[in-house]
Design goal:
The chain is α/β, with parallel strands linked by helices. The protein has ten helices and twelve strands. It starts with 7 loop residues before the first strand and ends with a helix. About 35% of the residues are buried. Bound molecules: zinc ion.
Amino acid sequence: MNEQKEEKGRFAPSPTGRMHMGNVYAALMSWLDARRAGGKWVLRIEDLDPQRSRMEYARLLEDDLHWLGLDWDEGGIDGAGPNGPYCQSLRSDIYEHYYQRLAEMGLLYKCRCTRADIMASQAPHESDGRVVYSGRCRPGAEPPFTLTDGPGSTRLYVPDRQIEFVDETYGPQSVNLSEHCGDFVVRRADGAWAYQLAVVVDDALMDITRVVRGADLLLSTAQQLYIYELLGFPSPTFAHLPLVCNAAGQRLSKRDHSMSMEALRQRYTPAEVIGLAAHQAGLLPTPAPITPQQLVRINA
Ligand SMILES: [Zn+2]
């Protein structure tokens, strides 16, 4: 008999502003996915960027989730589990450990390029704003490389091959990292840990089995799966959410203050906000008030 694997989802917001409708939608969908699987839900605070993250926003985030009725089993600002705290700003030693593992594999090197250097040396690419790093600072043609001390960001070598995965929403995906992004940054020049490394280490050590998040992260999933493979972690399943738009078809943004939790809490009850989010997600035919617990019992 197989041992039953405990399902676990997570919500991993950055505390750089008040939650807005787009965050409510992402939180609700991840929470529902975990609860429908009979699993746990983790709240991780992604405060890696010291310039933009504020503890007051993390506190408001927790308060807004409580108000909405989206309860978490592990994590939060004061959460601590067997593999450390749940605020990324407190997990630097953990990231350092895995960074050193990648360095020992000879896959890391220092990059001293300015943004202008990178823009000048990259081949013209699709007009989606992505920057594909040319490998300008690679110390040799192929790894192993020696990671030197000194200034600069640290990049992870990527091979010229396809990374394949099946997204539960968007279906089979195939991404060649050398064409998609090139060698990518795992530690910034200012010492801050890059998202791609931190998110993989955290999801793996927090035993996350189901990642439900916005479609803006669909293509960076391949970068993360590459790190999962290098570090020998089992990878979770991924379901990316189509981005929620307003009535005018524009992506919901933090700049639309009518959609911030501050404004929503003045105008609506928690069940009304959940109803709006569920309707936008296509779970309800009308934006009728409903609790998260009631939604668990409705088939998607
Ligand atoms: Zn460089």
